[in-house]
Specification:
Strand content: 5-15%
Helix content: 40-55%
Shape: globular
Length: 851
């Protein structure tokens, strides 16, 4: 009977009730069913998005019931709830089989076999026992979740073996993504038949896709006309061959197929029943248009349920989920936000199947549900942005470029736009763009004023030095005055030339000295004004907060000290006199300004100080060749995560590229650093090394020493790399680079230190080891490797002679080396993988205390 209900499910998985609409997989269903009936333990695996869960729910479960099986609720082993009792994976599986309101006490401490034996059975009689099937979906969770409980995996497989052995009427089907199937190999020896009963479902080909498109339309009362469904299949399997050419690929993505057909059907709902024509397909069923329509309708429904601006959500997709190269990115779910978007909005987007969530390293990560959404979302966002006007376009481009100060508004343009814009109701990122423009404008003006003040101070100091020199010459006149005067003139000329050629660092230092003096005067003035004033306790608290802020300026020194320590005091006659710093000339105090004005002046001064030095990285030392070694700090918490790039910079330039990416990312995303934490990044620990990717000379500093053989753990002068002798230095820490790293690590006392290098074809994480201990490095290293999908080195049992991670471990600090896949390049996908590793490390460190 014809019906107007939509016969396509869109991006969600099929359920059992949708079985009559599930087409294109009949051969797979029959093959899998035959294998399950003949073997009591079966592994069913397929690529991500191929439709495993849909086939299980819509087809396999109903067929098993027809065959006389009791089908237990679908189980999972990777539930988010953690348990400290028993085996975590067994506990989670049992929990998923129980009603949601069941109490853990009812199964606590029981084995899987005893639980199943005690579970009521359906359909049993005195003469016959009904066979039952346990289906465990998303079984890859056995290796992707609860990484700190990795030792429970072996126990889980033992309990699964016992359950099958103890109950002859129990069948088990394990369902997982095919890319994780090899991870089961270490455990298959414990299972009946070594888990050799396996069924692999391939991706959907064109024939299956045609059936999945055409047959539901017949059921819905709107069949496709001749050749129309075939045309849609060809559209869906288009692939990009190069920049200008496309071709027909072998496969179709089921999610993409369902979304396009679902949207096409929705567009036809108001029309009378009848054939779907090629014209309908061209006007209403364009693939990109259908995906864009689905995206836009999902945004409308999400915004109707929440208070998030449309521009904020669109920018989140554009800049967080889609990389500049047009590939899918991944974002980490924090406690309240995911990459800046509130979690309740993210949940709504996931409920509408725009996002796919995956659990890695104990955390949740999101990505677009499919690559095919990338271009439709980009096109939709461009169209929407064009309708918002030039201000939005400017703000959006600023956001896309990483928020550089060079793209901000300034001067009259800024003032005009600020006067005409309601920031409270403007679309993101306009408010951030204009606020940042205003802040940058204030900094620019303040810096200009500070530069002018520094120039004036320098001019007065030069005059004072000249006057002092002349005075000394006059007082020292003797019989040999002529020759002395010539000498004095030469010295004075040399001094004036030195001051005239002072570099930018000296000018900045003079400006900061002047600002510091003003700051101290204002602090004292504010303290005096507060004394005894009504409400002084509250004001004192505000001032204390200001006065105890960490200094905005580092310790700066100059290479040309003045001949005398002087202060300049203009006299009424305009003559400058020099007085020693230890003395002072008191002048009547001016009328005290309002407390609020003084506080604002303090804020302005400190903003100016920050502007002068804010772009400078902290120099922690110099290389053997005299180049600076710099550290960048983000976040202000006491718990430090230290990343070190470029220990063998020329050998693995990719490690420096990764550090640069991390610096850019955390400067733009400071909210991703958990409260109480800071991340410090040494971008290039060996700036002298020659650029020879993958070749040993690239590991050496200017003294020809391999720095990763120069740390003080098992150091010896006789070491090798690739079976060839290398120079480990004259002694441990003989090199200025390793000394700088040593001193910095001892100073900041990081919670963990991660070194980056290359190369391992699959990526590799190697924990440090020294003096029989790893200082707890193996667990976070495993978590990083799992999040980045790198190989994990076996538990550390050997020391690299003079290795950096090993020395850090000897200090009781966890440390591991991350070996990237390439020596000389860092593809975006690998940066994203390591970003997941870094954020998973934060998750590990912020978790509950570990025994």
């Amino acid at each position: 009977m014809a019906t107007l209900d939509n016969p396509y499910v869109g991006p969600r998985a099929f359920e059992e009730k949708d079985g009559h609409l599930f087409f294109g997989r009949d051969g797979d269903v029959e093959s899998l069913l035959a294998l399950v009936l003949s073997r009591r333990l079966v592994l069913f695996y397929a690529p991500s998005g191929a439709g495993k869960s849909s086939l299980i729910r819509a087809k396999l479960i109903p067929r098993l019931r027809v065959e006389g099986f009791e089908v237990l609720p679908i189980g999972r082993v990777g539930a988010a709830v953690r348990s400290d009792a028993g085996n975590i994976f067994v506990d989670n599986l049992i929990r998923s089989l129980e009603p949601t309101d069941a109490q853990p006490d009812s199964w606590a401490g029981r084995t899987l076999s005893s639980y199943l034996a005690g579970r009521p059975r359906a359909g049993d009689t005195a003469e016959d026992v009904t066979p039952r099937v346990l289906i465990v979906d998303q079984f890859e969770e056995i290796v992707t979740t609860h990484l700190e409980r990795w030792m429970d995996r072996e126990g889980f497989f033992s309990e699964l073996r016992d359950a099958v052995r103890d109950d002859p009427s129990l069948w088990v089907v394990l369902v997982m993504r095919e890319d994780y199937a090899p991870d089961l190999d270490p455990y298959t020896s414990q299972l009946p038949g070594r888990l050799q009963a396996r069924f692999q479902m391939r991706r959907m080909d064109a024939t299956a896709a045609l059936e999945a498109i055409a047959k539901p339309a017949v059921i819905g009362g709107r069949p496709f006309g001749p050749g129309v469904a075939e045309s849609l299949v060809d559209n869906l399997r288009q692939i990009k061959l190069d920049e200008d050419r496309t071709g027909l690929g072998e496969f179709v993505e089921p999610v993409q197929l369902q979304v396009v057909c679902y949207q096409l059907w929705q567009n036809l709902q108001r029309r009378a029943l009848g054939e779907i024509t090629l014209e309908d397909l061209q006007t209403l069923g364009n693939v990109d248009g259908a995906l864009a329509d689905y995206y836009e309708s999902a945004l409308v429904s999400v915004m109707a349920e929440g208070d998030c601006a449309e521009g904020e959500i669109r920018n989140w997709f554009a800049f967080k989920l889609i990389t500049p190269e047009g590939t899918r990115g991944t974002v980490y779910r924090g406690a309240t936000e995911t990459a800046g978007l509130p979690n309740y909005i993210v949940d709504k987007l996931a409920d509408r199947y725009l996002l796919r969530a995956e659990v890695w390293a104990g955390g949740t990560w999101y990505e677009l549900v499919h690559d095919r959404f990338v271009e439709p979302i980009r096109r939709s966002n461009r169209s929407w942005a064009a309708r918002q006007g030039p201000l939005y376009e400017a703000a959006r481009e600023w956001e896309r470029a990483g928020r550089p100060a060079s793209m901000l508004f300034s001067g009259n343009q800024l003032q005009q736009v600020l006067g005409a814009t309601d920031l409270e109701h403007a679309q993101p990122p306009i408010p951030d763009f204009l606020r940042s423009s205003a802040t940058e404008e204030e900094r620019r003006v303040a810096k200009e004023q500070a530069d002018q003040q520094a120039a004036e101070t320098r001019r007065l100091r030069l005059i004072a030095i000249g006057a002092t020199t002349l005075l000394l010459i006059a007082l020292g006149a003797t019989a040999w005055a002529l020759s002395s005067r010539a000498t004095a003139n030469r010295e004075r000329a040399r001094a004036e030339a030195a001051f005239a050629t002072s570099d930018a660092a000296r000018q900045a230092a003079l400006a900061l000295v002047a600002l510091g003096a003003q700051e101290q005067q204002l602090v004292q003035q504010l303290a005096t004004s507060n004394a005894g004033a009504p409400g002084s306790e509250q004001i004192d608290e505000q001032e204390t907060e200001l006065a105890t802020l960490p200094p905005a300026t580092p310790s700066l020194s100059t290479s040309t000290p003045s001949p005398l320590a002087l202060e300049e005091t203009p006299t009424p006659e305009g003559i400058v006199t020099a007085i020693p710093e230890t003395g002072s000339t008191e002048t009547p105090a001016p009328a005290a300004p309002a407390i609020a004005d003084v506080q604002q002046q303090l804020i302005d001064i400190r903003a100016t100080q920050a502007a002068i030095v804010g772009s400078l990285a902290l120099e922690i030392g110099r290389s053997a060749g005299g180049r600076p070694i710099e550290a960048h700090q983000f976040g202000s918490g006491p718990a430090v995560v230290l990343l070190v790039g470029g220990l063998s910079a020329g050998f693995s330039p990719s490690s420096v590229a990764l550090a640069d990416q991390a610096i850019t990312y955390f400067s733009n995303n400071p909210a991703d650093i958990p409260p109480g934490f800071a991340i410090h990044i040494v971008r290039n620990a060996n700036p002298d090394s020659p650029i020879t990717p993958g070749e040993p000379p690239g590991r050496l500093n200017a003294n020809g020493v391999d720095l990763n053989r120069n740390f003080d753990c098992g150091w010896t002068s006789t070491v090798t790399f690739r079976q060839q002798p290398v120079n480990a230095g004259a002694a441990a820490f003989s090199e200025p680079e390793t000394q700088a790293l040593r001193d910095y690590i001892l100073e900041v006392a990081p919670r963990i230190v991660i070194f980056f290098g290359a190369r391992a074809s699959n990526g590799l994480v190697v924990p440090g080891y020294c003096n029989g201990q790893d200082a707890g490095s193996t667990a976070p290293g495993d978590i990083y490797a799992s999040a980045a999908r790198y190989d994990q080195s076996p538990a550390a049992q050997t020391t690299t002679t003079g290795g950096g991670t090993d020395w850090v471990v000897a200090r009781g600090i966890p440390s591991f080396f991350v070996l990237l896949r390439n020596y000389d390049r860092l593809p975006d996908a690998e940066w994203q993988a390591n970003l997941r590793g870094i954020q998973a490390t934060f998750t590990y460190l912020t978790g509950p205390p570990r025994q």
